[in-house]
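Dear Dr. H.,

I hope your travels went smoothly. While you were away I took the liberty of generating a structure for the chain from your last submission, since the lab meeting agenda had it listed for discussion. I wanted you to have the full record in hand beforehand rather than looking at slides cold. The sequence, exactly as received, is reproduced here:
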Amino acid sequence: MSAALQVTAFGLALLSTLFLLLATCTDCWMVNADDSLEVSHRCRGLWRECVTNMQDGVRTCDQYDSILADHPVKIVVTRTLMITANLLAGLALATLVLGLDCITFLKEDPCVKLKMCYGAGVILGAGSILGFIGSVWYAVDVYVERAMLVSHNIFLGVHYDFGWSCWLGMAGSTGCFVASVLLTCCLY
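The corresponding predicted structure, in token form, is as follows:
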């Protein structure tokens, strides 16, 4: 039972960490489009902004000036939280691999291997919380930005939606949290 639970948690943690990594690297955190004309589709990400022409499918991306330049708070905070979540999830995966029962590393001391799995669960939980906070922070800021435009009567048919990268970050964080619960609460 313990080995099957460990392998299940490892698979879920691996998939969720890949989701977090993809969410951090991709550039579609916020989508805005013109409802009236449906001419272009704009995705804003943590690293660049891309515009896709809906008629011919041509995509043009603009990199942000520099990582050290002044950026909006939502981008800086989300970058920081997502990168930290990725690093913690990677560390947890490395620790979990060494703590799995099916790996022969420290095979003669199962107590240490169990502690490694427990530690990996705690680290994975911390990473999942940071990733979830980063994803939700960005999503709430997108909602507030849209609400400010509407309240100032600047809303001219442009709508803001959460992009697939934002949803991917939330899904990856949730999966890491579930794997963390499996490793910390259910393993014993």
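Two observations you may find useful: The chain has four helices and five strands. The mean pLDDT is 84.

With kind regards,
E. W.
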